[in-house]
Specification:
Nuclear Transport Factor 2, Chain: A, elongated
């Protein structure tokens, strides 16, 4: 077997692995490392609540959200109820989903990401895309990189059987809008701009479907 064929088989195997991870954890792909959040000293609740079975604190939680915060406490409950869930993998997947969904929106085609967005969000995004088309505008965008992805809140709604995680994303993109004649009406293809978004992902508690959906957006 030639070396070129072996290389193709290896690349194919990697591609299949990434696609599976993408669907299981919000479209996970290798990307930028998540920022480390310095734990905030807890004054009332003992640190023992974050102990794991093997002993010690659960750094998967306190390395990503302030210790003792509402987000940390709810993540602890979430992890106890769903042992397969990890904060680190969720952040990696959410970051990849953010890039995919953002670029799908900018490029005017949501078909590839419809499974990862709720009906309400898809309707809002599609409305903007349709308005662009009616105005004869096309958008050319490129995702340069993710500067920050951070959990800012976690909500567990027992009554609705829903768990929500709100994140803050800071990314760098280039974007330009052109009219029907191809003239630039907004943006600069050579200028990198920083974009800030607050997105909320949700999933049904105890669901066999591991996918999270984007259910709300903000800035």
């Amino acid at each position: 077997m030639g070396s070129s064929l072996v290389s193709l088989l290896v690349l194919a195997g990697i591609a299949i692995f990434l696609v599976l991870r993408l669907r299981n954890i919000l479209g996970t792909r290798d990307g930028f490392e998540q920022p480390r959040v310095d734990p905030i000293a807890e004054t009332q609740t003992p640190k023992r609540q974050f102990e794991v079975i093997e002993g010690g604190v659960d750094h998967d939680i306190i390395d990503n959200v302030p210790e003792g915060s509402r987000a940390a406490n709810n993540l602890l409950v979430l992890k106890r109820n769903e042992p397969d869930f990890t904060v680190t993998e969720f952040l990696t997947g959410a970051s990849a989903a953010y890039e995919m969904i953002l670029m799908a929106f900018e490029n005017g085609d949501l078909s590839a990401v419809s499974d990862f967005i709720s009906d309400d969000v898809e309707e809002a995004f599609q409305s903007v895309i349709d308005n662009r088309k009616e105005a004869g505008l096309t958008v050319e965008a490129q995702f340069i990189g993710l500067h920050e992805s951070q959990i800012i809140d976690v909500d567990l709604d027992e009554a609705a059987r829903e768990e929500e995680i709100k994140l803050r994303f800071v990314s760098e993109v280039t974007s330009v809008a052109r009219d029907a004649a191809g003239e630039i009406v907004e943006g600069d293809p050579n200028k990198v701009k920083r974009q800030k978004d607050i997105w909320t992902f949700a999933r049904e508690m105890g669901s066999n479907d591991p996918n999270w959906q984007l259910v709300a957006t903000g800035a």
